[in-house]
Amino acid sequence: MTMSMYQVSVPVFKQMLGALSAVLAKAEAHAEAKKIAPEALLQARLYPDMFPLLRQVQIACDFAKGVSARLAGVEVPGFEDTETGFADLKARVEKTLAFVEGLQASQIDGSEERRIVTQAGTPKEKIFSGQSYLLNYGLPHFFFHTTTAYAILRHNGVEVGKKDYIGTY
Question: Which of 12, 41, 48, 104 is most buried (CB neighbours < 10 A)?
Fold first, then answer.
């Protein structure tokens, strides 16, 4: 059976973003129940040189929308990084989900050889085929940031498990 570029991207982003939203809701409830200032979780990080939870969620959303848009050949929507609370982060995830869900399989399928050029925070550009961009760059980065967001919350006592991370499939 052949897998299409759409099947390997959009449903994965939808599943994991849905799980991320649910984990954020659990974190917000945990902070409220334990009388923890939300900022303590939002600014928590696994190690001093890593981004905090807030930024991990922003970047996960950026990868989901950016990879999907580039594969579809449409402009990547720009989101301001102005989130300060759990409600803001959940809204960003929902906005990202809405964008990704709005893409059609016909826009993404056939993008295996599409030329994707990135500059990933450095002046040196990187050129990928669509398939390499998705499988070797986009998905690994997306999973890194969703996993790190989950790990930050778990490390800080939020009662989440593997089922929460995986979400509904």
Answer: 41
